[in-house]
Structures are given as structure tokens and as C-alpha cells.
């Protein structure tokens, strides 16, 4: 909820910036409010993105693996669906009206979310039984550093009145103050972190330009050329494959769904094909020397198709893998690390352009730039292949806190039911709401 509030605050700052831009000429004040809007928007987006998956899963008490997988895939599909709608509208509207439409739509959407959450939050599970994962990791690492070797017990140990059990001896000798489950949770986190290199490899190939999001309305191009230059093909491909998987493939061909790591590996292969096809296109089709017009050719739909498939395979499967393998108390932290991996890839992508003199502001047309990115993605694929072959999936016998969550849920339900039945017909029962913990 804090992420939505920060995004709404960013929207307010943006509105103030629009007013200043329209009526005043104070550039310092304008940059100040736009800076505040940008900082709060990024903070709100990351906070919302890192917690919404865990929050949705907490609502599905006792849900099956297929239902949880469907939630994750619909969560991943929301991004390309919104971009498809945005790009279709953006290329159809001429002038600066797209900024006003986007601003109003964002404000209405955030308002609907805030109002709906305030009205229905009493029907949602807001009980948090998760401990601080960072504190546990630090404590385990510090204890492991100080106790590298098991300590030998004193010979006077067995002079006690009762002989200690083997379990107690083993805990004093190896376990220290932590349970075996807690130590395995920390080990699982460090085994999972290197596999996030797949997300870095995907976002390194994503093209990030100012033109794709806002555009330059003074440039007059056709509707089709606008869709090509704004990477519409990759978003549309992702939407088609997401809908095909969720509505047709998963319900009918469930047994043929490959393993998560295999899907991620195949997605990296499509990511390599994305950069290789762009390298070939810019070698075969010499771009226009002008740097003020977007480069458009129908051949660009080929790499956009490859990237759309890679997005579906890597983003959804890596998020599903992170949620499935991460310890329950560390899911939020691992989803945050998953988002941080995306940010690392975008940093590599943006800063790599400066070394190749990409003069065109709409799309880098240097074929050597894409050749280098092909090699980088191939290195990421090789590393992921080696790491995934050595990874051992962790299988838990039971979920931590799941019985406690179910017990609290039905206990609260039975208490409310007894209160309603015992109260007179003219008495209003005020339900005690569980406090929302951010």
C-alpha cells in the first residue's frame, strides 16, 4: 500500500509541474517538482512491485500450485498488456494530447486502487507472520564465520544426572542458536542469487529510449512506422503468448509444460537471437544518415518477435522460480533482488550505447553495438547453463506458518459468526480490523 501512496504522491507532484510549465517560466522550480515526482515514482513502483506478488499469494490460503502459477503469470502479463494499449493510443494521437491523456489515466487508476483498497481491506488477509530475513542472514553468516569448525565437547559433559539426547548434542555441536530450517533457508538464498543472471541477460537486450515512452510529436510519421519504432511488436507478441499459455496451453497441455529452468534457458536463446537478428539487419539495411528521424523497416518485427518470446519465458518463469524456491520468510526480499537484477541489466544497456556513438536518438543503428550485446548475452547464457546444471531444487515437506495462517483465518471467521448469531437483531456488530503492516 505504501507503494501506491508514493505513486499517487508522484502524480500530484507531476500535476504541479504541469501547472508551472503552463503558467510560469521558472525552470528551477519546474525541475524541482519533476525531480520529486521522479524519485517518488521510482520508490513507489519498486515498493509496489516487490510486495504485490507476496501480498497476492498471502490471500490465496491453501491454493494449489497451478493457481499460484496463474497469479504469477497474470502479474507478469500486466506489463505488456498495458504497453500495448498505451502504444496503440500514442501512435494514433497527434500533438501533445498524449501527455494529458496519460496523466489523467494514471490519476484515475491510482484513485480507483486507493478507494477500492480502503473499502475492501477488511476482507483481505493482512496478518504478517514474516520475520526480518536480512537479520537472519546476517546472524547465520556471522555465526558461521566465528564457528568454522565444530567444537569438541568436554569429557565432563556426561557427568550429568541425565545423559543428553543425540539431538541436543548435535544442536550444541553443529547447529548453534539456529534451527536446521533457518540454515537451509540462508543456503537456498545464496544458491538462487547467481541464477538471477538470466534476468540481467534479458534486460540488457531491452531497448530503452525517450522516444518509445514520450516521443517527439513534431516528427510526422505513419501509424505503422510509429508502431515499429516504438517496439510495439515485442509487447504484442508477449501478450499473445501469455494469453495462449494461460487460456489454452496450461489447462489442456499441463503435463507438457517444461521445467522452470529449462524455460529460462530457452528464453535466453531467444534473447541471443534478438541481438543477432538486429546485427544482421543493420549490416544489410544501411540506415539513414539523419539523426532526427526514426529508423523504420518491417524487418525490425523479427527481433521484436524474438524478444517478446524471451520476455514471456524469462520474466514469468524466473519470477515463478523465485517465489517457488525462496523461503517463505524471504520471498519479498528475493522478489526485490529479482527487480534489482532487472535494474542491473538496464544500467548495462543504457551505458553501453555511449561507447558506440549512437547518434540517432530514436534507435541505435550501429551494427557493432548489437554484435557486442550478442556476445554479452551469449556469455550470460553460458553462465546460466552451468549454474542451472549444478542447482539442486529444494523440496520442503511443509510450508512455514501455513497451518498458523489457516487456523487464524477460520478462528476469526468462527468468532465473527458466533458474534452475529448471539447479538440481537437491532445490535450493530463492529468488526475489529486487523492493522495493515507495511
From TrEMBL:
Question: Topology in the membrane?
Answer: Multi-pass membrane protein
Superkingdom to which the source organism belongs? Eukaryota
Q: What is its main location?
A: membrane
Coiled-coil intervals: none
Question: In its UniProt record, which GO terms are filed under biological process?
Answer: peptide transport
Give the location in the cell.
Membrane
**From the UniProt record, which GO molecular function terms apply?**
transmembrane transporter activity
Q: Which residues cross the membrane?
A: 5-24, 30-48, 95-115, 232-249, 261-285, 305-323, 335-356, 368-387
Gene Ontology CC entries for this record: membrane
Q: Any idea which UniProt keywords this protein has?
A: Membrane, Peptide transport, Protein transport, Transmembrane, Transmembrane helix, Transport
Pfam families named in the record: PTR2
Family, similarity comment: Belongs to the major facilitator superfamily. Proton-dependent oligopeptide transporter (POT/PTR) (TC 2.A.17) family.
Q: What is this protein called?
A: Major facilitator superfamily associated domain-containing protein
Taxon lineage: Eukaryota, Metazoa, Porifera, Demospongiae, Heteroscleromorpha
